Structure formats: C-alpha cells, structure tokens
Amino acid sequence: MGKTGAGWYLGAVVLVASCVLPGLAVAQPAAGQGTAQPVAATSGEVVSTRYGPVRLFADARDGSGEGGEAVFGAQRIKLPGYGLSLEASFQMPEADLLVLTSGSGARGMPPAYFLIQVTAQGMAELSAGKDFSTADHTFRMERTGIGLVFDLGFENKRKKKAIYRDGVLTVEFGPSRPDEPLNRETCADLLNTVVQCLGKEECAGDSLDLFAMGTQRMLFALDNTPGFSSDTFFKVCREICRSRRYDARAARQRICHY
Fold this sequence. Notes:
Blueprint: E1 13-14, E2 45-47, E3 54-57, E4 68-72, E5 75-79, E6 82-91, E7 96-103, E8 112-119, E9 122-125, E10 140-143, E11 148-155, E12 158-165, E13 168-176, H1 184-194, H2 213-222, H3 230-243, H4 248-256
Antiparallel strand pairs: 1-10, 2-3, 3-4, 4-5, 6-7, 7-8, 8-9, 10-11, 11-12, 12-13
Helix pairs in contact: 1-4
C-alpha cells in the first residue's frame, strides 16, 4: 500500500510531500505502524515518549531564525529547514523513535527528514551525517521484525533505503536500474501536465520558461527515477506547442514507456 512522490507505490506506511503535480498527496501511516502527527510545532509542540516529553519548536530558540529545534530536558538538537514537525513515532524495545520533518523553503523541493532516538539516557539524532533524504519526494516506512525500513525512493536511478535496527540507522543504495514503465498514476499526472503545452505562447524558449519553478523542480526530481527523462518531457511539450495537437497515446508512450 502507499504512494511515493514520483509515483512508485508499495509498502505499509507512506508519507509523501505534496507537490505541484496533481495527485501526489500526503498519506497517513497505517494503524499499528506509528502515530502520525503532521502538525507544525509553531509554539513548542509537546511529543510524549516513555522517557519524558520532547518539545518541538518550528524555529530555533537561539534567535538565528534558521531551522527548528527539538528539546528533551536540558538537551537541544537544532535541525535545518522550515516548520519542524512530527511525522510519526514508534515505540521500539530499546527506545522511542521520532520521525521529524521540515520544509525546504522552496516550492517543489523535497522536505528534510530526521530520525530522533529517545531513551532514559537522553536524546540523539541517528540520521545525522547519514544522507537520510529523498531526492524524488518518496518517503515511506514499514515496521518489520528487525526494526524499521524507510523507502527513500530513487536517487540517480538507484534504489535508496534506510534501515533502523538495534539503535543504528544505515542508508543503502541498490544497483542502477534500466528504464522501466512509470507507475500509471504518476504517468497520468505527467500527461495532465504536458497537455498544458497546448496553451503555451512561446514554444522554442528555454525549458525553464515553460512551467512554474515548482513544477520544474518536481520534474527534475523525477529524473532520479528509472523510466523518466525531463529532457524527453520538455521535447514532447515543445512538439505539442508547435503543432497545437495533443495525441495522448503518443505522449504516454514517449514519456511513460507504455
């Protein structure tokens, strides 16, 4: 079950950043897989754990105006981004885990994610220095018999995932994958976007002039996934613009490979 930000869907829990392309919305975790509370911590939101409360601040308390902050007792962890909030929480045998997120501040860019561990000994950011990020807006998680598995989508055409087990977070990459047909829902989103090229007044301009910045960033994020090329997408767009004709089947074959 679930949905990724680039249209690659599978898994027990799916959390996807909303984006410019239609149909790519945020989904909540399934029952029993974690408690999602995606409310921005603008006034010091209190998150309960077995070891005491963690307070989240959307803005760092040092007055710098940069990033947010998680506070547990006397401990403080400053985290980059805008609007720090709780995405999900898990009670593991050895610790409570908080999955936090913050916005990039730029429309169409993936949000940042952080994994915080809370124990009787204190709080720690397990994701620090671990490339715990998504390039294509995919972010989903599944609780397994060994811990937690985070699907981070694709990066440079390679499958990316993170695994939490016994207090340790590791990030792994799979081999590069050849082009393959896109998920049908993502394909539909792309076709709904490319058909807008019928109404473009300037057909020969730079690709960056054809769509709003948020849409451009989402298309470039999709370049990380097998089966999509923004170069091909923009080429099809220009051809539709020049001819003032839209053939849905031909566009689907070239953009989605089916």
